[in-house]
Amino acid sequence: MAGIRTARPARPASPGSPAARLDAAILRVLAAAATPMGTYAIMAAIARLEERSIYPNQVYRALERLIGAELVDRVEMSSGYLLRPGLRGVILICSLCGGASQVDAGPLHEGLRKTAERHGFSVERTIIEASGRCSTCIDVAEARASDRI
Ligand SMILES: [Zn+2]
Description:
This protein has one domain: Ferric-uptake regulator, C-terminal dimerisarion domain (Dna Ligase, domain 1, 2-Layer Sandwich), CATH 3.30.1490. It is 44% helix and 19% strand. It has helices at 18-31, 39-50, 56-68, 106-118, 135-148, and strands at 2-5, 72-75, 80-83, 89-94, 100-104, 127-132. The strands form two sheets. Strands 1-6-4-5 form a four-stranded mixed β-sheet, with no helix packed on it. Strands 2-3 form a two-stranded antiparallel ribbon. The structure holds zinc ion (ZN). Zinc ion binds next to helix 5.
């Protein structure tokens, strides 16, 4: 199963403002994450990092700004957020371990843009996700299967 989503950009935070500080904290938290993080996990990590409480609405607004600035991607399949590495990628989500990675898929995005243009549609942003099994989980499953023989 693959999901495709487009989003409108949100207004960036003013430099030096509390919102900009929160955006930077979220980017630090997501940079250290191995799997997509949900809003409440992000809130808890920021509370530990900055030793202050934070409200869900603040995190939601910050995530909207960071998605608008193309610094963060929302992973629809796991309702989590990932740091965007700055390439036109596909998010690959492992349905067993929950791990996510992004791989470059420029030709896929280009094909989608051209298809949309043929229908008179101008694509502003595209996120493509695919679920399946990561190489580690496939290796573990194969090792277990060979142990049984
Ligand atoms: Zn996996």
